[in-house]
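Fold this complex.
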Amino acid sequence: MEVSRKILIIDDEEVVLDSCTQILKGEPHEIAVARDGSRGLELVEEFRPDLVFVDLKMPGISGFEVLEKIEEIDPTIVTVVITGYATVSSAVDAMKSGAYDFLPKPFTPDEFRLVTRRGLEKRALVLETMTLRREKEMLRENFAAIVSHEMKSPLSAVQQNLYAMGLALDDALSAEQRERLERMQTRIRDLLQVVDTWLRCVSVDVDAIRDRFAPVAVNAPIARAVESVEPQAVRKNIEVRTLISEPAAVVLGDEGTLAEALTNVLGNAVKYSYEGSKVTVAAERHEGVVDIAVTDTGIGISEEDRAHILDDFYRAAGTGEGGVGIGLAICRRIVEAHDGSMSVESDLGKGSTITITLPTIEVDNVTDHEPKKKAPAKKGPA
Amino acid sequence: MSDKKRLLIVDDDPDFAGAIRSILETAGYETQVVYNPKDGWQALKKNTYDLLLLDIMMGRGAEGVMMARKIRKDRVLREMPVLIITGLREQIAFLFPGQAIHPGFVPVDELVEKPVEPEFLLERVAALIAAAEERKAES
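Structure:
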């Protein structure tokens, strides 16, 4: 069954309006006609057509102007131009103004039907795309709620029971058993923290971060990130080195989310590094920007994966590591909110460098935020 | 009859409620668990409790909030301290946009996040009960 759509025809020639209406008779569509551009535009607002035929040459406002106005009113409306002097250039110009197709006069009923069908197919695609985009946006917005309910609740219940067991078995557990129980609690706590990080970041409201922007010396979030990954690094005997060129660059941003982004990148570097290797965080100033580069000597990222690792939910195949691949996408979002960019370089099997580039600000002797005296932290501040 | 304090736990997650109950009973409290606000309300009307531990997100939404509001309106029940244990601060913020994290459901309530460490839970429970008894002694 063909869906009923609304078609508007704007043409100053009565005969064109009549014949078009005749041709489409018997199809399930609603037709409206206008004899000039201004009436046509009124009908665009009132009738809300899916497809509009516009004659290019009309008294009053021109077809081109009508096309532009329709684009302003609703860019999803599909437009087709009818042109009596079917020169390539006028058709091209019309297409540039947003027309989807053109129909040279004189046309046969079959030609008109064909163009109509194509135009309506295009409209259906446009509508479908819009629906999908809206669904994607809704999914993103609801993600926080879904994650909190589906993941945090069971994890909380498990953790609460581990706590209860620890308390109830206080006297009964051997040292080794106690340690195992504590390890379980630690792992669940880490997992809950991961979920919290996602929640904060997925529902990250760029404008809200921007409200909190203040001058931040880059050594502060770097130190916080290094501190956060320390436990994992120690476990794998990985040395995390910090190299910050003096004086530390100052950016306009939110220290908390910047630390979050760096923790993600650094955490990945540690996760994908070989035991006993080194991970380096280097902050280097260039003209107007600072490059914060995290380099590891880990498994590296293939060229194919490199193109996607900054996308939502992308995980490189065969890494054998857990996770749903959202960390770097969150970083990208945070970095972009700071008007910065991220880039990836990698040698498969040898290691990778992920660089966050942020615009710096000049701060003359403003030391109220992060005293410059403070040495570039090797370890995080307490 | 012992002089054990009686606590009521209202939470729709039996596993979570069970763990909370275990911690509180290990610490010497007498507890009763119900899994929805309706049973909770009935229990409150029938028995007297020294403290209510209340979950927020139950059933089809923030049913715990409705229950807390009902308690606040009740002349007798409003004297009872309420400890809210909830899964997510954000949910609270979402439910009461523009308000502080601690929205003050009832004059004597307090809010802790799930999961809650035993020491902290026991400390808060003891403090709330003590504060309520002090108020009672004063009046």
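The first strand of chain B starts at residue 6 and ends at 10.
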